[in-house]
Amino acid sequence: MNALENLTESFSRLPGIGKKSASRIANYLLSADAVFIQNFSNQLATLQEKIKRCTVCGSWTETDPCPICSDITRDKTLLCVVEQPQDVQIIYNSHEFNGMFHVLGGVISPLEGIGPSKLRINELLERVKTDGVKEVIIATNPTVEGDTTALYIQRLLQEQNTGSEEKVVVTRLASGLPVGGDLEYADRLTLARSFRGRIKF
User: Residues 51-92: pLDDT tens digits?
Assistant: First the structure.
């Protein structure tokens, strides 16, 4: 395997990129400007050094805590729970939610060996207990795994509510999101309707 084939193979491992797309990208880079190639390679080489997970919400950030967690104008009584860091940016860009975020780092999926202990669920329960959260909005994707994770979290929060003076409301994004779809592909209007139409468990 030569250098071009190795590069094509590497690109094809990225999500959403097949063999043909990978080959087009690799061939484009061969004829691209040398300065662009150098900058691009530097960005890739230092990506994991510069960007880490926020110790509060679990999203990607260059500063810790991240800008969203550090923003004093956001409503700290609202906590939106999402699967992955990219979901935070998608919801943030919709300008429909002014609360805080919590990234689980995935969903419960027994077939893939992912149980609750591999997700940031304990950190979520601790934040709800100590940060004055009044409503938890579960925004996992409307898939079997996403729904299973949402129901599991809802049950834990209900148990945590037992005996507590301050009851935390648990809601789920409404049906504006298509079943089997991902937040990553939702448009702003769909997200807006989902937030406005969220329902109580």
Answer: 999 999 999 999 999 999 999 999 999 999 999 999 999 999
- Give the residue among 136, 143, 150, 147 at the shortest CA–CA distance from 102: 136
171: closest CA among 131, 149, 139? 139
Sign of CA dihedral 82, 88, 91, 96: positive
Q: E strands along 31-98, which residues?
A: 52-53, 60-61, 75-82
Determine which helix (DSSP H) or strand (DSSP E) holds 12, and give its type and residue range: helix 3-12
Q: What is the pTM of this model?
A: 0.82
The Cα angle at residue 200 between residues 56 and 116, in degrees rounded to 5: 45
Tokens 């729970």 correspond to what residue? 81
**Residue indicated by tokens 């990234």:** 103
